[in-house]
Amino acid sequence: MIGVLEAIGSWVIGFLEFWGRWFLLSVKAVLLAFKKPIRFKRYIYYLASIGADSLPVIAITSFFTGGVIALETYTAFHRFNAEYMIGAVVAISMARELAPVLSALLVTARSGSAMAAEIGTMKVTEQIDALEMMAVNPIKYLITPRLYTSVIAVTVLTLISDIVGYIGGYVVSVYLFHVNKTLYLRYTQNLAEMNDVYHGLIKAAVFGFLIATISCLYGYYTKGGAKGVGESTTKAVVTSSIAILIFDYLITYILRLFNL
């Protein structure tokens, strides 16, 4: 019994310690963006690294996701002669849920792991200590640019994912199942709303924030040499992915609460 209580207490302390560190690092990273010097080149570099380099894999994933939605819904809608409503289902599903979540998970796997590994390597090789010796704030230099560019990149990638996913659904519906394209587009316009897009973009911005802060946090507190870098990278990807799914539910619930 005592061992169980010790295990629970240890887990609670570790949980609170992690989120306490996360909160402090996040606040510092956000506020330090407004302190000079502002290194715009680093922002541009990370925007290209996180955003532009992730575009091909997200575009491919989104195209086939939209196509799969059309394939799965066609059978049910065909029974009611309502195939032309597939477009609305694809558009709303991608905009509100699939585009932000898939984009965030792919960025986590690709860029979040890279953030944790790079910063973790700098930590164990004492490069972060060297930055401090040169009077360079490591949070401002390493984490702040990644934080802001991740929010922007995931938001833009989600918007692109919406468009590409809808195109995937259109191609499958119109060219494979020969759905009337005029009705397909008209019912999409009638049923899908801009609120659906805003819903997904809000999620995307939050997900981008979570990816950058959690990944950088694990990298920043890495210990134990090369093995520690590997463990931090794995934990960063797993924790970020779980956080994305949990916050996906919370954001959806809050937006539903306010009828958004």
Explained architecture:
The chain has 260 residues and is mainly α. It has one domain (2-257). 85% of the residues lie in helices and 0% in strands. It has nine helices and no strands. Helix 1 (2-31) packs across helix 6 (138-176) and helix 4 crosses helix 7 (181-191). The radius of gyration is 21 Å and the shape is elongated.
Write the layout of secondary structure elements.
Elements: H1 2-31, H2 40-51, H3 55-78, H4 86-124, H5 127-133, H6 138-176, H7 181-191, H8 194-220, H9 225-257
Helix pairs in contact: 1-6, 2-6, 3-4, 3-6, 4-6, 4-7, 4-8, 4-9, 6-8, 8-9
Protein name: Phospholipid/cholesterol/gamma-HCH transport system permease protein
InterPro entries: ABC_MlaE_roteobac, Permease_MalE
Pfam families: MlaE (PF02405)
Number of helices: 9
Radius of gyration: 21 Å
Uncertain segments are: none
What would the principal axes of the Cα set say about the shape? Answer: elongated
Q: Which sequence of SSEs, written as H and E, runs from N to C?
A: HHHHHHHHH
* Helical residues, percent: over 70%
Count of folded domains: 1
What's the oligomerization state? Answer: single chain
Q: Which structural class fits the helix and strand makeup? A: mainly alpha
Tally of extended strands? 0
Main β-sheet description: none
Rounded average pLDDT? 89
- Strand proportion: under 5%
Distance between the termini: 47 Å
